[in-house]
Amino acid sequence: MERLILPLPGNEAFATRLAALCRAELGGLETRRFPDGESYVRLHGDPRGRVVDVVCTLAHPDPGFLSLIFAADAARDLGAVEVNLVAPYLAYMRQDKRFQPGESVSSLSFARLISSTFDRLTTVDPHLHRHPALSALYTIPTSTLHAAPYLADWIAANVPSPLVIGPDEESEQWAGSIAARIGAPHAVLRKVRHGDRQVDVEAPDLSRWLDRTPVVVDDIASSGRTLVAAAAKLAGMKPAQCVVVHALFAEDAWAQVSRCFERVVSTDSVRHPSNRIEIGPLLADALLRNLRD
Q1: Which residues are catalytic?
Q2: Which CATH architecture has domain 148-277?
Q3: Does the N terminus or the C terminus of the chain have fewer Cβ atoms within 10 A?
Q4: Is the pLDDT of residue 197 over 70?
């Protein structure tokens, strides 16, 4: 029996493409609020005896989190043999330790909630800091997928003679792999963060690559401060491009970043006007592989 894919509101377009790639049935989720503010969830599609994939990118997790949990529980209660979470973007990876006395370690709490509800988690480029892998947080099987080859292929097809730029030391391996895939040079900047919104960047000597187009690559664009600071270090070079995996662009970040680059492009892991790179095939391949395993 074919699998059933259920999108949370706002994820319909991504789920439609995913269902087509997986040759799965696309179901639906009806959600609304009762007058007292409680959430109502109804499944459209029969989960009996089937693998059910709930699709929900978690760029803004709090408002719809209970609907996500209710949908998963309903699918299981109605006879699903397996209920999986497909989260192109995975939230709550930031607070992975107690920085100040009394703080919640929300990454662990969130992982416990997801692990107690779903059978498997599939996501793309989670922003791991102090944990080497999602298995250090989640007690269910996890599939961590990487969008770097998709970014590399887009750069190769759309940017003549690129120079791949990593915005900080953490991006060394990532920027290097993108550059190696397309046979381009790369350089890495050094980030000095003074808080959530204050970032300084130091750049190596880039004068030998003045004939190339700098392309800043990053996994997440959230406040945008790092990207803005990186763009400032590329003055005197050809107009810079920016390619990111997860286009969060909180508050005024999109306005700030889009002014600094000739072009800003992202994957469709988070719905945004900058989306140009489709990662549905990456997730579809993982879902089908898991089903075969």
Answers
A1: 191
A2: 3-Layer(aba) Sandwich (3.40)
A3: C
A4: no
Using H for helix, E for strand and C for coil, what is the string for the chain? CCCEEEECCCCHHHHHHHHHHHCCEECEEEEEECCCCCEEEEEECCCCCCEEEEECCCCCHHHHHHHHHHHHHHHHHCCCCEEEEEECCCCCCCCCCCCCCCCCCHHHHHHHHHHCCCCEEEEECCCCCCCCCHHHCCCCCEEEECCHHHHHHHHHHHCCCEEEEECCHHHHHHHHHHHHHHCCCEEECEEEECCCCCEEEECCCCHHHCCCEEEEEEEEECCCHHHHHHHHCCCCCCCCEEEEEEECCCCCHHHHHHHHCCEEEEECCCCCCCEEECCHHHHHHHHHHHHHC
Query: Helix or strand or coil: residue 41?
Result: strand
Cα–Cα distances in angstroms (integers) from residue 9 to residues 12, 28, 36, 122, 270, in the given order: 7, 9, 20, 19, 13
Sketch the domain layout of the chain as residue ranges.
3-145, 148-277
More confident site: 129 or 17: 17
Token pair for 91? 């939230």
**117-165 pLDDT tens trace:** 999 999 999 988 777 889 999 999 999 999 999 999 999 999 999 999 9
Q: Which tokens hold the place of 262?
A: 């000739």
- Provide the pLDDT for residue 6: 98
Name the pTM for this structure.
Answer: 0.92
pLDDT score, position 31:
96
Residue, of 172 and 66, whose pLDDT is higher: 66
